[in-house]
Write a structure and sequence with these properties.
Blueprint: E1 5-9, H1 16-30, E2 34-39, E3 53-57, H2 71-86, E4 90-94, H3 99-109, E5 116-120, H4 123-126, H5 135-144, E6 147-150, H6 153-163, E7 169-171, H7 187-192, E8 200-205, H8 214-225, E9 230-235, H9 241-250, E10 257-261, H10 266-271, E11 275-278, H11 287-294, E12 299-302, H12 307-310, E13 317-320, H13 325-337, H14 339-355, H15 359-376
Parallel strand pairs: 1-2, 1-4, 2-3, 4-5, 5-6, 6-7, 8-9, 8-11, 9-10, 11-12, 12-13
The protein binds ligand GMT.
Ligand GMT binds next to helix 1 and helix 4.
Length: 377
């Protein structure tokens, strides 16, 4: 099979869709394909210097007439340039808004028949697809794609219900790099973060958006604390951070809740953690749950969206309903106080990572899809 030239459009900053886009690109590059990232800045897990990976920056001047600089148009313009200059075989777009629309426009500008694969990651459909100001645009971007993938069956079903697209949607699960996400022992990190040897550690990692329901996590943690000595690690940054800091202060939990900010040492942080807690009201997949699983950390999470496809209740974690703060606390305690259950869930998790979310298999699924759309053309 000939090697492909693939244009990748994604959000380069913190976020699961950007992580998947860069990990997938890295693995495709290892298979000999040529990757061209067309983004506003260098993706944060971008492998600079790899001979098969290239970066094409999208820039736009802030002219006085623009109330909002038209980034989406500048992106389309750059996509058109790269399609022509690099003779791309296909575009792989991560997150429909605005990327799928910019890809359609860029393709049109270049007068090209290049195939476009759009991967839906979640809120591009579950929130933006419900917003009357954007719904038609999301549908347009999706329908202009040659083929669409969703990161879970749940997201595929929700997309069919909400958008009823005219194009084929396939489910391809997210994956992690199994060489990076491994159990790591890091006692010095515990010291560094002020965690005592005897304390249990709960961890939550996210972009601190409202959908993550972090106040529910803090309330559950307070109940856990009544039974065991513990610390809660809140890893990440985002719009809700200030509110959560206030809540933690009101609940007088400052000595027990550690805000780490953005971190790059996830395996080490997971290595000192006993349970991952995730109380989202919307979650198409929950990449951090998979990262935790690969590092040997069972999860307590909500039974919504794609989470039940990642966490099997009573197998590699526990599921609770949204807002069930007490039940989440009890489930955390069951894992923190029962070593044998913890270790069974941990082992089950390793098996699930290896079988259901095996990166080599998933990358091959994407590769087959790439050839399918290119050959269709
Ligand atoms: O919508 C977001 O919260 C951002 C987005 C992202 O870029 O990380 O998250 C979505 O994509 C991830 C990667 O596929 C999934 O793991 C997340 O579950 C999904 N977020 C939501 O559905 C809320």
């Amino acid at each position: 099979m000939r090697k492909l030239k693939i244009g990748v459009i994604c959000y380069p900053s913190l976020g699961g869709s950007g992580v998947v886009a860069t990990e997938l690109g890295a693995m495709m590059a290892e298979k000999g394909h040529e990757l061209h990232y067309i983004t506003s800045s260098m993706p944060f897990r971008f492998i600079d210097g790899h001979p098969n990976i290239h970066f094409h920056e999208v820039t736009i001047e802030g002219y006085a007439v623009f109330k909002y600089p038209p980034y989406d148009i500048a992106l389309a313009n750059r996509i058109a340039q790269v399609i022509e200059a690099k003779n791309l075989d296909l575009l792989h777009v991560h997150y429909a808004m605005p990327h799928a629309v910019s890809a359609a426009l860029g393709k049109d500008m270049a007068e090209s028949d290049i195939p476009v694969i759009t991967t839906l990651h979640g809120t591009d459909v579950t929130i933006l697809g419900r917003d009357s100001a954007l719904r038609n645009t999301v549908r347009y971007g999706v329908n202009k794609s040659t083929l669409v993938t969703a990161v879970s069956e749940s997201l595929k079903t929700e997309t069919l219900e909400l958008i009823n697209p005219t194009v084929d949607i396939r489910t391809i699960y997210n994956f992690i790099d199994e060489n990076t996400y491994i159990p790591v022992e890091s006692e010095s990190l515990k010291n560094e973060l002020g965690i005592l040897e005897t304390e249990k550690v709960l961890i939550h990692i996210s972009n601190f958006r409202e959908v993550k329901k972090i106040p529910d996590i803090v309330k559950s943690f307070q109940l856990v604390l009544q039974e065991v000595d513990a610390k809660l690690l809140l890893v990440g940054e985002g719009p809700e951070k200030e509110n959560i800091e206030k809540l933690v202060a009101e609940m007088k939990l400052e000595d027990h809740v550690i805000f780490t900010g953005k971190r790059t040492d996830m395996p080490a942080l997971l290595g000192i953690s006993d349970v991952m807690i995730h109380m989202s009201e919307k979650e198409a997949f929950g990449l951090v749950l998979l990262e935790a699983m690969a590092c040997g950390v069972p999860s307590v999470a909500t039974n919504i969206g794609g989470i039940p496809e990642v966490i099997e209740d009573g197998v590699n974690g526990f599921l609770v309903s949204v807002g069930e703060v007490e039940s989440a606390a009890q489930k955390c305690l069951q894992l923190l106080q029962d070593e044998s259950r913890h270790s069974t869930f941990r082992e089950n998790g390793f098996k699930i990572v290896n079988e259901k979310f095996n990166s080599a298999n998933i990358v091959t699924e994407y590769e087959q899809l790439y050839y399918e759309v290119v050959n269709r053309k």
